[in-house]
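Good morning N.,

You mentioned wanting to compare the apo and holo forms, so I went ahead and generated the holo version with fe (ii) ion. This is what I fed in:
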Amino acid sequence: MLTLAHVSDIHIDDSPRSVERTRAVMRHLENLPGPLDAVIVTGDIADHGSTEEYEVARELLASRHPTVLCPGNHDSRAAFRKVLLGQDGDGPVNQVLRLDGLTVALCDSSVPGRPEGLLEEETLVWLDSVLAESSQTPVIVGMHHPAVALGIPYVDGIGLREPERLEAVLRRHPQAVAVLAGHAHTPASTWFAGRPLLVAPGVINTALIPAEARERYPVDLDLPPQIALHVFAEGRLTTHIRPIV
Ligand SMILES: [Fe+2]
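and this is what came out, ligand included:
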C-alpha cells in the first residue's frame, strides 16, 4: 500500500495568508505518525511567478518525503525551474517520480501568459515515453488543469484545451490508472478517458459551485486549507480529503 499526499494551489505571495496555510499543511504532513510515500504538488505554487515567491515556497515545501511538483497557470517556468529544481531553461517542466510499485508522471499543462491549459507536443511525447517505460508498473498521471468541465463556469472556461490528445495517449497505456489535477480549488472527483480524474482542493481557498453562491467568482475564504490523501492498494486508488485546522 502506498499513500500519496496531494497538495495544490498554494499561491504563495507576500501575504501571510498563503504562507501560513501552506506551513500548516506541510507541518501536518511532516508530523504524520504513519508512512507517507510522496507529496505531489499540482501547480499554482507562486501567485505571480516571481523568484522571491519561489524562494519562500522552496522553504515551505521542503519535506522529508519524496516530493514532485508541476507548474500551474500562475507559475513561471523559468523561475520555477531555477529556484525549485536548480535547473535552467523555459521549456515545459515535466517531472517523474518512481516509487516502488507506482510511477507518478506530472505534466506541465501551463501556457506561458495564459490562464487556460494545454499539453504541448513535447509534453505528450514525454508522457507517452514515460508510460511506455513503465508498462509493467501502474502510473498516476498528474497536471494542473483538469481535462473536463467541473461545473464551475469560470474554472471550466480556463480548463485544459485539446483534451482528446491526452485521452489518446492514456488509451494506449492501460497501466495509467488515474489522473490528478488542481486548478479548480475544490476537491472534486469525476472521470476522463475511462479513468478517475481526481481534483485536489486548493490550499489558498475553496471555489464554490453555482448552487452554493451567486457571485461570478465564488470563493470561500473561511474554509480551512484542505489536501487529498490518495491510497493506492491492489491496483485501486482511493481518495480521502482532509481539512487542515
Ligand atoms: Fe490556482
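The chain has six helices and 15 strands.

Happy to go through it together on a call whenever suits you.

Best,
F.
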